[in-house]
Each structure stands twice: as structure tokens, then as C-alpha cells.
Amino acid sequence: MLRSPNTSESSNVTTQKTTGTSDKYKPSYTVEGRQILIVYGTEYGFSEEVSRKLFDRLSDIEIGKDESRFQPRMVNAKDYTCIDWEQEQICLIIISTSGDGVPPTDAREFCEFLTTTDTSLKHICYSVLALGDTNYPQFCKTGKQVDQRMSELLASCITDRSDVDMEDWSVINRWMDKVVQYLSEQSSIETRMDYLDLSSLDDDSIPSRHNPFMAVLKVKKPLTFQTSEDDKETIHCEFDITDSGLSWTSGDALGIYPENNPSHVENILKMLEFDGTEKINTPVWAYKPYSDTGDIDLYTAILKFYDLKCIKIDLLQLLCDIVTEEREKTELQQLLQQGVCSIIIYLYFYKTTDFKTSKSNSFLYEYINEREVRDVLENFNSFVIKTPKQFVSCLKQLQPRYYSISSSPIVDNNTVCVTAAVVRYKLLGQPREGVTTTYLQDRLEVRDRCPVFMSRNPDFRLPSNNNVPVILIGPGTGIAPFRAFIQEKEKQENPGPVYLYFGCRHRNKDFLYKEELGKVLPWKQLLLNDYENANTILVVFSLTQRQNKTIHVSCKCTLPAWKRYFILLPINIQKLEKWEQNGLISLKVAFSRDQSQKVYVQDLLLKDSKLLWQLIDQILQYSSVNSMQIDSILYIFTPKDNTV
Ligand SMILES: Cc1cc2nc3c(=O)[nH]c(=O)nc-3n(C[C@H](O)[C@H](O)[C@H](O)COP(=O)(O)O)c2cc1C
Predict the structure, then answer these.
(1) Do residues 161 and 32 share a domain?
(2) Of all atoms in ligand 1, which is nearest to the CA of residue 140?
(3) Is the pLDDT confidence value at 377 over 50?
(4) Domain residue limits at 184
(5) Name one Pfam family in it (predicted).
(6) Which of 113, 273, 279, 514 has the CB geometry, 3.0–4.6 Å to 295, for a possible disulfide?
(7) Which CATH number characterizes residue 228's domain?
(8) Which of 98, 141, 455 to mutate to test the pocket of ligand 1 (most atoms within 8 A of CB)?
């Protein structure tokens, strides 16, 4: 029997028949059928959502005259040890890329297993759906690596890997169509009961993304105040996680499940002419205690589990089908079908008419990106939605948000701190707000409870050698994880020096944690100028000769995904000192709005470009930095698409 490591050969596999629909996506769900394994590796839950869709599609297929069924089973890559590869026939892998081209944290061991095993998977047919984002230089790297490795292990490819740019469902659906088409023609897949070894799976007692801990908010204090429209509102929150079983390491992030603004929920219910007490099926992604019940009232479901900011194209499609006003129908049709020009371009490149959900439909994407669910319902209001189910099936799942933890467990392992800039802005003449930051600021009161869990960030750590100097650049709320790092350095015996680069608009208004940092680093407060236009946060850890290694990380922080870059570069201590003596490292001090002429980070970088390239040259010569890393470095120094 070929099992992944840590799996007992003599385990008692209980193949209980489970019939509950909410349980069907769990690996413990098992019925007799033609077994198909779906392995998903996810950081933020999208791969799991796609896997559920695939599961449903595969479950619906009837094969042959006996109308037998496929029995898909979904296994999170973190639970890969329950897989008995010898028994598998078909394996579909849906995996995202995280960090700077690395597997999702929970999928690392699975990828490591695939890389190191030399077992033949000749008997397995497979296909990979790689999820990613073209804004990252290492687009879909993990999916590509997994695909290559499966092929090296002699598994046969059912259909070519598809690489998905963000949530491009047209690509996802095309891949699923091909998989379904292939499988529908396979009568040789054996019918069996399930044989997964579930004994090694995590129990539900440890809080996780699916089972968050209800932490008490014990402190909420403003770090900056809004005295004019231009000012930023930044808050510091402390959550009590005593007896939760949760632990973290500085560099990790806290996942927080927000609630929507109740007035937005009420407004939507009014437009739909529902009163909110109607019952619907509890969404499969609901956390406890809601997940324990079969149904939930519509108001609670929309408040806690559905995204009212991001629009699913299904909502436009539904409205297009049911609006009664001709003008609205025509507008929706135009929106969904877009101009002839882009259809032709799309047909030419993709040889398909499935353009409705494609990113190539930029007109549609622009419409969606600028609007929220309530805007769409207001724009096209001649509808009658018959059932709450009809409506919620067109909404996205409300995702947890991740905040870099701004406190060290060494200081207090029962209190988790986060630092958040409250998001409020105007778009299309309407006031808009960030869901979680306004939930924390406006709706969550001290002593209230809120669902939280830990999100590991294993690449983003202080160097293990305390003597190693550390340079941190974290403008604005980018300072959050560095506050935790600095708290740790404070507790170390003979710590190496810490260089902190911080940027903000005004010295007296938004210099976060000014007093604390002033205490810790009186001798090295290097204030960089404005951060607003900084695309990237660069973190330089200097390493001793002995530790010379290159580490690349991405950190979950509050910046939009494409701005989330943390890069570690190795620098030799002596070199660092020498560079400093030679003036290669100089201090740049500027607050963007404290003088009449604005000065930004990129202006300083541009001015220093020659110097910076010399520095990068030295780093590159010193370490074995590969071309991927050079791309990332180039990205840092071209914040305004300027080539330095
Ligand atoms: C911090 C972070 C780092 C990422 N790094 C990459 C990357 O290096 N390459 C890539 O193709 N996509 C990258 N992505 C995009 C994700 O792979 C993409 O959003 C995917 O749909 C997420 O799926 P998941 O929720 O299942 O993890 C990154 C996303 C985040 C938030």
C-alpha cells in the first residue's frame, strides 16, 4: 500500500455512508461510486470554492447504462497523508500560488512530498488547475511545479493544466468542461467505497479558518485622528485569545471574519422585498455555531456570510433574465455581451464565445469593479426576485480579512494586536467603506466577540541569529509586523542593530507608534517619506556569512494583493558596515506633505538610482540571487512604471 508519510498501514478506515448535503464536501463523506480525488491547496479559500464547484459538477454526471455515478472526494492538501496513492485512479489538483511564488502555507508539505517522493504514479490520471494572479512575477508557479512533478512521476495527463488569472471563471469553466468531457467517456474507472485514512486529520478543537475562535475585543484606540478629509484614521485593536489554543509567531497574520454594515443589509432586503426572517440553507462556508444548523435566517446569512461589495456576474445574468423594463434588459445584455470588437478579439484569441465571464470583457469588469451589490440592484430595479435562494446563489462568499499581527507573543501570548487603517472613500458620488476596518472601528465594541484565527507566514521571520542587524522598511500600517519584531528584539540579549524605515504624510499626524518606537530606537529612526505610492515594501535582513541564504517571502498585510511584497535580501554584516561607512546606505528623511513641494519615495529612489544599482549589483554578486529575484527588485524600484 502506497501511503503518503505519517500514515499508519493498519489504520481502521471506517467507510460510513454519509448523506447530509452540508457534509458532502468533507473528506469523511463517502458513498460507493467511481472514486475521483480532488486535492486543493489554498491560502485564502478560493481553491476550495472552485473544488466545491468541481465536486458538484462531477457528482451530477451519470455514466453508462447503469447510470452509475462518480464519487468525488475533496481533500485539503494539508491532509494529504490520508491519501493512499496506490488506490487512486483519477486525481484533480486545484492549487494556488502564494507568497513570492511559493505554495500556500498549508500545502507546503504536500508539495514537498511530491518533490521528494520517487514513487511511480503511473496508474493515475491527473490534471492541474493552477490559480494565481498575473500581477505577480511568479504566475501560477506552484500549479506549474505540481503539474511537472506529476508528469515526472509518470502520471498521465487528462487535459493540459490551465492557469487562472485571479477569479477568471471562464478559464476555470473551460478546464472543468474538458475534465468532465474526458471523465464522461471513461467507463474503466472502478466503483468502490472510499478508502481514505481519516485518522490523521485535524480535529475541530483547534481554532482554524473553518472553526474560528470568538475572541473578545479588549482594547480599541485611535493611533491617528481625522481632523480633515485628507487625514487617515488608523486604529490599534487588542483581542483576548485566552484559552483558545491559538498561538502565533511574530510575522504571522490574524484572520478576522467581519460583518457587513447592517444598514446596507437592511437596504438590500428592502429592495428585494424580503423581511429577513425567511429561512435559507446555511452556506457551506459558515463557521460554528451557524454551521451546526441546517438553515439560517436571511438577514443573518447576508450580514455574516455573503459579500456585498464584490459582484458575481451571475447576479447580472439573473437580473438580465428577470427585469421587466426593456431599457434595463438591453443595458444588461450590452453589459454582458459588450461591444462587437472585444467579442471578435476574444474569439480570435480564445476560439470560444464564452466571453461573458472573461477578464477580456473590460467594459463589464470596469462596471463590476466600481460597484457594489446595492448599486446593481438600484441600477436595474424592475425585478421581482422570487426566492431568497435565487438571490444568495448569485452572491460571493464573505471572506475573512488578514491583518499582520503587531504584537509579539513574548510580550503577552493571550493578547493579539492588529493595526488597521480605516477605509472610507467616495466612488461614483457615493460614500464607500472597507468592510472589516469599519466593522472594527464603527460596529465592534470593546467586550464584543469576533471570530478570529491564525494565518501562518513561515517565511516572514526575524533571523534566528540575534546579532544579525535588521533593516525594516514599513511605511504606514506596514509598520504593524515590525512592531512585533521590535518587541522581540527588545527582549533579546545583545541584539544586533535594527534599522527602521518609516514613511507617512505628516510628522505630527500619522507617525504610528511614535512614542514606542522613539523609546526603542532613539539612535536609529530613519524616516522615509511618503508611502502612499510605494508599490512595494522592501525588507532587508542582513545575514552572516554562515547563514548566507536567500529567502523570499510575501506577507499578508492590509495592502491590496498586488502591493503585498516583502522581499528579503542577504547582506554580509561586514559588507553592510562597509557600505554604511562608504555612504552606500544613507538616511532619507521626508514627510510627503510637510512641505509645499511633495516629495515621494520614488523621487528619492530615482535620484539615488545609480547608487541603488551599485548596491543591488553588490548584493547580486555576493549572493546567488536568481533572475526571478531580480525581477522583484526591478519591481520595487519602478513604483511609477519608471525605468530606473
Ligand atoms: C500575499 C499573496 C501572494 C501571492 N503570490 C502569488 C504569486 O506569487 N503568483 C501568483 O500567480 N499568484 C499569487 N497570488 C495570487 C493568488 O494565487 C490568487 O489570488 C489565488 O486565486 C488565491 O487562491 P486561494 O484563495 O485558494 O489561495 C498571491 C496572493 C496573495 C494574497
Answers:
(1) yes
(2) 11
(3) yes
(4) 21-200
(5) NAD_binding_1
(6) 279
(7) 2.40.30.10
(8) 98
Q: Name the closest-CA residue to atom 20, ligand 1.
A: 132
Quick one: which H or E segment has residue 238?
Answer: strand 234-240
Q: Is the CB of 106 under 6 A from ligand 1?
A: no
Cell numbers representing residue 460 in the block: 516572514
Say yes or no: 233 and 173 in one domain.
Answer: no
Is there a single domain that holds both residue 30 and residue 167?
Answer: yes
Average pLDDT over residues 345-353: 46
Helix (H) or strand (E) holding 68, with range, is strand 68-76
For the stretch 619-640, pLDDT in tens is: 445 444 443 343 333 333 333 3
- Cell 512592531 appears where? 483
Measured between its terminal Cα atoms, the distance across the chain in Å is 57
Q: How far is the CA of 630 from the centre of ligand 1 (A)?
A: 20
The number of residues in the chain equals 644
CA neighbor of 182 nearest in space, from 262, 139, 126: 126
Contact 96 CB / ligand 1 (< 6 Å): yes
Regarding whether 194 and 48 lie in a shared domain, the answer is: yes
Measuring from atom 9 of ligand 1, which residue has the nearest CA? 139
Whole-model pTM over 0.80: no
Same domain, 280 and 388: yes
Query: Residue 488's pLDDT is what?
Result: 85
Residue 436 shares a structural domain with residue 559: no
Residue 231 banded pLDDT, cuts 50, 70, 90: confident
Average pLDDT over residues 138-164: 97
431 and 502 fall within a common domain: no
Q: Is the pLDDT of residue 537 over 60?
A: no
